[in-house]
Amino acid sequence: MEDVNVPFVEVHYITIQQVGNVPITKGDFQSLPHQVQTWLAQMIQLCAPRAVYICDGSEEEAEMVTNKLVERGTLTKLTKYENSYICWTDPRDVARVESKTFIVTNNKYASIPHSREGVKCVLGQWMSPSDMKQELDDRLPGCMAGRMLYVIPFSMGPIGSPLSKIGVQITDSNYVLLSMRIMTRVSSEIWKHLRHNEEFVKCLHSTGVPRPHTQKIINNWPCNPEKILICHFPDIRKVISYGSGYGGNSLLGKKCFALRIAGRIAYDEGWLAEHMLIMSITNPKGEEKFIAAAFPSACGKTNLAMLTPTMPGYTVRCIGDDIAWMRFDKQTGELRAINPETGFFGVAPGTNMKTNPNAILTCLKNSIFTNVGETADGGFYWEGLENETPPGTEIISWTGERYKLGEDKTKKSSHPNARFCCPARQCPIIHDRWEDPAGVPISAIIFGGRRPEGVPLVIESFDWKHGIFLASQLKSETTAAAEHTGKQIMHDPFAMRPFVGYNFGHYIQHWLDFEKDPKNKLPKIFHVNWFRLDENKKFLWPGFGDNIRVLDWIVRRTNGEDIAEISSVGLIPKKDSINLQGLIVDWDKLMSVPKDYWKDDIEETLSWLDGQLGDDLPHDIRIQIEQQKQRISQIN
Ligand code: GTP
Ligand code: SPV
Ligand code: MN
Question: Which residues are placed with Cβ below 5 angstroms of ligand 3, an ion?
Fold first, then answer.
């Protein structure tokens, strides 16, 4: 007989998994690849979180974490757009911290070059394993007490491609989890590719704020600025980052893995991991060429990668805006490049519908905005959007100050390093091959920086070695992307000064060595400067969409057109060989190579490179410097 008085109860059989005494609240620990389990168990014990959450990359997961962050006040929904949020950090945690970034190897000179005595090396910082152990022993034990530990499986590059690399990031920041989901491929698919004991890059991140809190949390943004430490162990493919939640400090797939660790893997395996955008240019005849370009942080990669051409008949498509992994194809000899990322973490100030409409259109949904201003009607706002926002609009600045647009010109809505984080697939001009696991063939490599004085709009290298010299002598004005203050011109060879994971001398030699294989089709190398100033400190070049005119010249050079002439610093455009129709620019000022400037510059470059790299400076570069000196002395 049926017992009708008893209510129906559904029975769930819940197995609570634990590591030590820490419960796994989501995911099946025991089904993870063995080598992951071993490392995780150690980290869980070390960091002592309240619980562990193994991420699967699903939409439900994102929703759950987002809701939590909104509830807590770390994120605010921007009601003007779909699924987009704004975040204001602790004002002490706003950029990469280069002074606290280290490479750890047994041999010091595996990490940094033999700088001359008395010279402080700025091409990477080394710390010994024993000193680093002390630093970490002081920080890591119990660093996640009272917090959730998230386990994020991710792939840099298309999942399963032979060019891709897998990482697992542990973090106690759910803001980091949400950003990693935009910037990398987060999925439980990853575990399948780690069977058979395959290698993965171990990434540990903690904001360094265990509970109970001993310090006040500002803006619901946990961080520990006094104790920031970002350390890399390239020999064992490991990154540990402590104390910061911002950008390159905490999204470990980006600079830490895809440049510093991958750079070292690339050195070992014979390829390149570079701070470069990847784009294509199609001319009016329908011919498409791919190029890669390296500029230092906040010097124009995102803008170039998605530029809107002002020359009719040209099409630009974007493959990536920050990082390129490139290798010479063994069969064809082509240099093939992939973008290992899936999102843009772009500088917000200065971005608008005129300078970079494609970036604006990319971040109108599914995006996170950090340290920008908010309009009273739930939109984003930053310096550069003045002409697209009605005067009188009420703004809440990133520091929480309210003001009306246009009333007080001294008010700033955003931090200069404020960023948008948005999915690359939303970019209106994303290339349909942007996720091609085979990559795209690169015809030209461009280097550049912010050079207010002396440096022409474009220079083509005489040959491969001279191109590598151009990249080695790269300098640029400092920007807000890291902690440098003021606008000083700094050396930033290859735009990689903050991102190289091994001895910079070996790095330059690695580039030089690609010439030794006659099968390699070496791309032409160029140097550009959008930032030359006139005597009134105004830019001589309009930049942005008009940069297509320079790209067009570069592409025509890769086709062998006779439009270049020799100067003491390289090949420069023959007069009027760049299409300037519709522009008013002073060609002579833009292209001049002032003898006095370059005479001093080459002396300073020699002394800097020799001081920094000592005997690790490749001989070929010394020869290049001598040749440049000779050429300059011959200018009338
Ligand atoms: P990271 O993401 O830090 O690596 O920077 P990035 O190299 O991608 O720089 P981005 O394109 O975001 O540009 C940074 C700043 O430079 C923005 O404020 C732009 O407005 C400005 N900028 C970019 N291109 C040009 C240009 O052609 N001319 C001028 N004058 N400014 C530019
Ligand atoms: C850079 O600084 O070059 C960036 C921003 O691209 S961050 O991700 O913070 O490194
Ligand atoms: Mn960058």
Answer: 297, 322
**Residues 6 or more apart from 218 whose CB is under 8 A from it?**
90, 91, 92
Residue 101 CA to ligand 2 center (angstroms) comes to 13
Residues in contact with ligand 1 by the CB-under-6-Å rule are 295, 297-303, 321-322, 346-347, 349-350, 355, 481, 530-531, 539, 543-544, 547
Domains of the chain: 18-54+100-269 (3.40.449.10), 273-339+434-633 (3.90.228.20), 344-426 (2.170.8.10)
DSSP string, 47-61: H--SEEEE----HHH
The protein residue with its alpha carbon nearest to ligand 2, atom 8, reads: 248
**Listed residue (558, 285, 574) closest to 446, CA to CA:** 558
What type of residue sits at position 285?
K
Cα of 393 vs centre of ligand 2, distance in Å, is 30
User: Ligand 3 center to residue 345 CA distance, Å?
Assistant: 8
Determine the average pLDDT of the residues in 147-152: 98
Residue 33 reports pLDDT greater than 80? yes
Q: What's the pLDDT tens digit per position in 182-222?
A: 999 999 999 999 988 889 999 999 999 999 999 999 999 99
Peptide bond preceding 158: is omega within 30 degrees of 0, i.e. cis? Answer: no
Q: Which of 143, 231, 299, 318 is catalytic?
A: 299
Phi then psi for residue 51, to 5 deg, are -160, 170
- Bridge partners (DSSP) of residue 326 are 272, 337
Structure tokens at 442: 């690169």
Q: Is 299 considered catalytic here?
A: yes
Cis peptide before 573 (omega within 30 of 0): no
254 lines ligand 2 (CB under 6 A): yes
Q: Which two tokens stand for residue 605?
A: 């470059």
Q: Which residue has the tokens 């025509």?
A: 556
Distance CA(461)–CA(441), nearest Å, equals: 20
Check if the beta carbon of residue 136 is closer than 8 Å to that of residue 232. Answer: no
What's the CA gap between 318 and 290, in Å, rounded?
A: 10
Q: Is the pTM of this model over 0.70?
A: yes
| Side chain identity at residue 615, one-letter code | D
Walk across the sheet containing 85-87 and list its strands: 75-77, 85-87, 368-370, 419-423, 343-347
Beta bridge partners of 22: 19
